[in-house]
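Notes, p. 3: input format for complexes.
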Amino acid sequence: MRPEILFPLYAPVTSLKGVGTRVAPLLEKLAGPIVRDVLFLRPHNLVRRTPAVLSAARDGEIMTFELTIEEHQRARAHAQPWRIRASDPTGWITLVFFGRFTDQLEKRHPVGEKRIVSGRVGDDKFGRQMVHPDYMVEPGKAREIPELEAIYPAVEGLPPRRVRTFALEALERAPDLPEWQDPAWLARERFPSWRAALARLHEPETEADLLPQAPHMRRLAYDELLAHQLAMAQRKQDRRRGAAPRIEPSDVADRVQADLPFAFTGAQARSLAEIRADLAAGERMSRLIQGDVGSGKTVVAMCAIADVAAGGGQSALMAPTEILARQHYETIAAPLTAHGVAAILLTGRDKGAGRVEKLRALASGAVQVAVGTHALFQDDVVFQQLQLALVDEQHRFGVSERQRLQSKGEATHFLAMSATPIPRTLELTVYGDLDVSRIDEKPPGRTPVATRAMPMGRIGEVEARLRQVTAEGAQAFWICPMVSESEVSDLAAAETRAAELTKRIGPGVGLIHGKMTAAAKDAVMADFADGKLSVLVATTVVEVGVNVPNATIMVVEQAERFGLAQLHQLRGRVGRGRQESACVLLYDPPLSEVAQKRLDILRRTDDGFLIAETDLELRGGGDTLGLRQSGFPDYVFADPFAHRDLIAAAGDDARMILERDPALTTPRGKAVAVLQELFDWRAGAKLKDAG
Ligand code: ADP
Ligand code: MG
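Output follows (691 residues plus adenosine-5'-diphosphate):
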């Protein structure tokens, strides 16, 4: 139930003055459908309308003058503007108006009268002018012109100043809400109240008020982080409630592990121990194994699967693509089968009698493990006793998809795997509702990938080298970035590249891109994996984590456009065998200093966590695109870099609140519930995050 105090903020934007059928869709596009969304708009700039005289007018600046109307020059032709010539004792200016109602201008601003006029000055070969002044008021009403004005984002048809009017009205509607923050923390951080923080947001007093470190900005960010952390902590709490099957470490798993031709790394052993402790605890496990591609997550998961099977339960391992599912299946099926644990592969390709047979085996319990794609959570897939749901690259699935899989068992344990490195400081925001095991150690014997950055001008050398090594049997990935806003032109660029490489290298060049159907993508990937193609050109990271051991070269075009974590993952696709591998990062010169440093870190280390952390620091949080791709939430106020110190505090705060008051019934608890409603980060509501 939504608290009544929030009703005004949940009214549709049309309840704001001046928002009718024309404006509403524009405002919705910019902010969202309700008043709260307009209230949460953030100005990104500040204009000072300092009064000046015309002789001091500067081209391009926003200025305010006190002018006398001298003459109206009506439009002579339809497309021409209406002009008003005006002056002050130091000079003159032309005010220019286009549009429909210009004939009313003469009545509103008669010759001889004084007006305070504010707007952007143009001073060029057409003379000094101001097109559509922002304000034009009688001297007695000069106060209507704010000296400092926040500039809002705008959309076509809705200029920033209209947006500001709506934001200020939304602010008027914002009620004082009961304080949900701890008083001691508020005092320590010098946070204003929620209402005061929003007032400062929309009526900034200095340029510094727009910065993320301003106290009111930190307050709003903290509110948002706390709401989110609470939602995740609640979800974790809910999952724990209700007993889950107790699964003990088994001989079967030990034997499966002993049969592997290698010993676990310390990090693998530790992760398996953490999973086993969860499984034996009698509460539902919600754990993530995080580790680079090839760090050995799947074999750890395989041992957990063996434990479950030994206890009589079933497991389902879901991957985002068919080819990944098949690779997982190939990794785990034989070792498990050797010890009496039967596994099947279930993908969209299974049809007819074959599929029916597999489903029957799952329903009867004849098979203990199902590896697959989306095909796994379809309604007619029934398990005899699903106890463990595993999801690889879980951020590529929707929450409801993961839940559909889990709901095929009762109190199913949940284990996610991810190769997307998240900086430690941000882990809570992405995986706050999961316990995390990190595999931060690589299996021994891997040859590091030789990484080089080269300007695009040297692409010819790269192509010549590719021609040589592919002739000797090597395989290469060639990644073209998403650069433009238009997918079509990105695709065209990739097609051109593929055609050019075909010319230089020969017919063994394939192309894979996001517009292809899943089946078509899988087919191209399979050809590449089988060695039928020697070069695979791809538009984006289509197949994170795919294993093509023979591929030893990774070329990335316009590498400076990628997130470092993404580049690291791309590079992780080569260097998986004992052969020497190379990664070539082609860039468009000149590189900025930061871009240079970013590419440099890749040359210096292959520790994904270190790379992610350094990337965040180098970007200063300015570009969160890479973060979003890895599942970082789309916050309104919280900035992943500037507010990173608040993340851990919000996580601790959330846990403490729930420990003391799990049902949120105390006065602070009730205030906190209002906060959560305010941000929609509610357990079970529209979830954008993990688990
Ligand atoms: P991930 O799932 O993290 O990508 P996998 O579990 O699929 O990694 O392992 C990648 C490859 O490395 C597999 O061929 C696996 O057999 C091998 N491997 C895993 N752990 C080790 C280890 N400790 N020592 C040597 N090789 C290993
Ligand atoms: Mg894997």
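Residues 50-145 form a domain with the OB fold (Dihydrolipoamide Acetyltransferase, E2P) fold (CATH 2.40.50.140).
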